[in-house]
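wait is this the right file?? whatever heres the structure
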């Protein structure tokens, strides 16, 4: 239970970070 919460939180952070990077690259053009 606790472990699954940590994993899902990590996955959300990873997705968020990835989207942020992509947005930054697109806005720099």
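ok assuming it is, sequence goes like this
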């Amino acid at each position: 239970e606790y472990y699954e919460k940590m994993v899902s939180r990590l996955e959300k952070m990873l997705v968020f970070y990835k989207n942020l990077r992509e947005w930054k690259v697109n806005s720099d053009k």
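The longest helix spans residues 2-28. so i think its the right one actually
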